[in-house]
Structure formats: C-alpha cells, structure tokens
C-alpha cells in the first residue's frame, strides 16, 4: 500500500520611558519659563498663552525626538541586505528561499512573490505581512522579521526552521510513537489556539505547512490563505486550502469558522499515528472528498481507545460539535499527563532532534536578484509593513 504522505505529495504600546521623557522635557521648559519670568515682567494673560504654546512645542519636540529614535533603531531592509542561497520549497503564492543577513550572518527564510496588478494579490501580501507581525506572541508560529519590495517582487522575511517539515518527517518515519504524537500535537494545539484568539484561521493546515526547528519544536507556517477577524461564532465563506485536509463544511461550499482548522488538525493527528487519512479508502470505491462528506472515519483496530476518542471528537461532521470549538481540548484524557505551562514555555525536551544539513554554498541565477532593486514609487502594498521586528 502506498502511504498517504507519498500519494498526497504527488498530488499536491507608548512606554513608561517615553512618559518620563515627556515629563522631563516639560519640567525643563517650565524651569526655563520661570527663569524668564523672573527677569521679564509679562502680563499674566501672556504668561498663560505662552505656557500653552510651550506645552504644544514640548509635545512636538518630544514627538520629533521619538520619531528620530525610532528611525535610528530600525535598520533599512532591502534586497542587498540578504545573501540568497537556495530554494526551500513553495508556499502559497510564492517560493521560499534560504537566505542570510549580510552583516549578522543569521539564517532566514524569505518568501518571494512575483507581483501582479491584481488587487487581490496586494491584499493577500498585506494580510500575510500583518499576520507575521503578531506571530511573535507564540513560539509555535513562524515569526516574521521584515517585509519589503522591489519593482517586480515582494519579499517576506521570516525565521528559518532548520528541521524541515512534518511532511518530511512522516515520509521518513511513516508514523510516530504515541509519546511523540502527544508532544507534537500539544505544541500544535498551543499554536492554533493562539491564532484563533486573534481571530485568525489558518485554512491550509497540513504537514507541509508545519515546520520543525533543529531542536525539534513545531512551527505553524505559511499564512498566505489565512483569514482574519473571525471570532467566536462568526463565519465566512470562500473555498481555499488543500482538499485532502478540508473540513466537510468547506468542501460543501458552506460558511465556516475556526472549526475547520480543528478538522485539519484531526487529519494530521491521524497521519502522525497511522501514516494515512481516516478517510482513505483502500478499495478505491470513494475518493477522499466524497468520503469526507459522506463516510465515517475509519481507524485501525490497534489504535488506542484514547486516541480514537480524540479523533472522533475532532472529526465531527457538524462543526459546532467539533472539539476545539466545543469543549477544552487540553482536558482530553490523551493529555492527562501534560503540563500545559511547560509546553507553552517549551520546557519539555522534544523527542526527536533534527539536523540542518544544508551546505554553505550559494546558488546562482535567481531571477529576483537581477531585477530593479529600487523600491516602487507608485506601489505601496508594503508601506505599513516594512519593519516587522524593530530589534532586527
């Protein structure tokens, strides 16, 4: 029997310091005003007027100083800041390359998107850049560092996870041990719950979009088709993602919410445990799409009752009954021995440590290195998202 993984691969805040600075500047100006008043006799009305004007001047000076500090602390990101090496794979609407910073020699992953005049593409790039600005709140999401553009291309600079993808791991291992499944799925739960708390649905959760660090921790990546502003019982439309992992409500072109990500999580969990989808039909009587819509999931007899129970609750056809949106998944018996604070803080040692075997050589003939590197004057699709990480 050909494994699912192989088949699918073929198919596929102002701060306190600022407030103190404002108070200090105001105090200095008040001292200056008092000294002038000691030497110059001015009518009280003029004093009040000048005090008001000085206050406005102080605020303006403070604002200018703050902007100057910010400008000094934010490095300029452009194509020439990076040394490109080779392709890592294809993300939604673009290719991902390994690169390193010219100065610090830090490795990064850069998604390169060839720009088109289409408005929807601009919206997509802006959306992904916005999401990459907030992923730093969870260690289980791929973090964004910068976004910039040339005349022909848009670039999203992200952290590099050197351990490959969950898809790669499953192609080697075929299926994982129970303790490995518990560890990886617990980290994915933390990442998904953080995304959903921000009103973000991933919409294309699959092993190829789940990365591993060299230390062995999980990173949910590729937010190109993610949706924003979907909280609680709000629903949206639009069919997108990878059909193998699509929830039945999306396949049926119905409106949906974050429950679709929990369905995808259930499929991934099954693949981690068995190497296959619970809707794969060996007899080929039904395709996977039809099975997802009409059939019950099928699990091997040797699968533990606890894991089967979790999968049954994740793969409910009715989204409002699906675990993740209905009930607390962290309280499921499969995770009875899990200390969730330790998971959140990455205190639990990963079961598998991976190696980054990429060489140091540089590939040539990357087309975006030959294009005009001057920032567009008439295209501001990345205007608000040039800097995602001020500490960089």
Automatic annotation (TrEMBL):
The keyword Lyase does not apply. Residues 82-335 form the Protein kinase domain. Belongs to the protein kinase superfamily. GO terms for cellular component: cytoplasm; nucleus. Residues 1-72 are annotated as: Disordered. Residues 336-392 form the AGC-kinase C-terminal domain. GO terms for molecular function: ATP binding; protein serine/threonine kinase activity. Residues 20-29, 36-72 have a biased composition (Basic and acidic residues). This is Protein kinase C delta type-like. ATP binds at residue 115. Pfam families: Pkinase (PF00069). Keywords: ATP-binding, Kinase, Nucleotide-binding, Phosphoprotein, Serine/threonine-protein kinase, Transferase.
